[in-house]
Design brief:
single chain, alpha+beta, Creatine Amidinohydrolase, Chain A, domain 1, Creatine Amidinohydrolase, 3 domains, six-stranded mixed β-sheet, globular
Amino acid sequence: MGADELKTGGRRSRLEALRQALAMRGLDGFIVPRADEHQGEYVAARAERLDWLTGFSGSAGLAVVLPERAALFVDGRYTLQVRTEVDSDSAGAYEFHHLIDEPLSDWLVGALPAGGRIGYDPWLHTAQWVDKLKPILTRAGLVLVAVLENPVDSIWEDQPPPPLAVVESHPLSCTGRESADKRAALARDISQAGLAAAVLTLPDSICWLLNIRGADVPCLPVPLCFAILFEDGRVDLFLDRRKLTPGLEPHLGTDVTIRPPDALAASLDALGQQKRRVQVDPASTAAWIFQRLAAAGAEIERRPDPCALPKARKTLAELNGARAAHRRDGVALVRFLHWLSTATADGIVTELEASDRLHDFRRQGALFRDLSFDTISAAGAHGAVVHYRATAASNAQLDSGTLYLVDSGAQYLDGTTDVTRTVAIGTPSAEMREHFTRVLKGHIALASARFPAGTTGSQLDALARQSLWDVGLDYDHGTGHGVGSYLSVHEGPHRISKFPNRIPLQPGIILSNEPGCYIPNRYGIRIENLQVVRHAADPLEGRRETLAFETLTLAPIDRVLVDLMLLTPSEVNWLNYYHRRVYETLGPLLDAEPAAWLEAATRSIDGP
């Protein structure tokens, strides 16, 4: 099959080309994840193998290609989206499965006879993933084969080159903590555990540790790189020197050595040859790194990324930056919502027009660098697609009598934002108002929570769902994710979710609060603010330390959608207090017209 056919032909020709490549390698199947070598959510164009092969553009999922069958596995966020993007009708096209409810391992065991060989790229899957899948396949007589030369790359003739965006230092005024201090603290932990080094593979962890930022991937200000942190605080940074800006090496200091990316293998080999104990995170590190260390003779200590929790606990400078970023972001949001109210009243507005206008308002703000993710601008039924992305083909109008859901965020030099608002276009139905109000009740319940130190996000999750559960509703996504400081909009190791999480919420951690309600083919509702964990008060004698949340996001909640009969007096008070804070903070920063609109949008409401 020629290169021109692969470039201009449909996904079917790519699927057949991959099958031919697998046959040449003696493989009965191959797994194609949406991932790169760093296991990141945001990947460079070169790593968009799943999209190139299947057409699925979501941020999580994987495909399995066999000689006669192919399947695509996605989680609950993408069950509707995948059906609009990927061919499932023609013979031999993709089957769709739920990543959690219908595990990949079960499908493979049922689809292949004993002796079947399933290939995977060990750079694109974590060690934890391999450790979980391999025993299941082995018991079924199947063989999981690490393939060092990815067969998708062999047929992707015009695959983009690796990115080469510049790397810059991130100022102490934004970080609040010197890199040398961070490195010394983590090195003490490594040394005290009897370890020689920790391998770091997440670019946002490396950026936090070294106080640097980059632009190799969309929406995430990081360079693609690896690092090894040694027990004495030294760091080997594996980074293409062409990315360096003047002054970066003095910023890094003499204890940070820049090495070419292809030197990583030799450095891992050296640790193994010296029989050193090395800390590596199996949940976020490519299986290739584990396999290389083990083959070289290293003693691998499976531990979480040492940067993850310290990075999540924001410094005072980072928290002040987040507050300032949310004020500027709030101004952009109010200007947008004011524009939206007049534009939809006067004429036709489309999803893409709305998202472009919101982007324009944000770009006008100080310290704006980029969006923190692709804006979800979803009219009507598209709002029920949790991670919908408007395209020229799907671009819908914001029609009267429908709901408009806009989930968006920005990267500012001093902070990262993420906010969702659901807006009534025209007059909403009673059902819309009920569902919206139940989502709001869940949002308020979580925002108002007080909880003892040591509480995890999983223990709080039901607060946001209870009002929906009362009438048989729920949502198939987490309630809250961590957010970085001019880093990833989705940050661990904590979360608020049904799924167990053992990381206690601690002061300084920033999380989202985003319950939702989705009625397929009709509308979606989500209300999202960011909030930071704080001390509630000094504990009284004999009582536990108590924590609470401070809301960071500043943007009005659509009062037209609120059914007062469903709110308690305390919930009304919460909404009125929040709206008063929004107006008092943002009003003086706005021009006359949007300020007047905001005053009306945040006016107090009477209780039931």
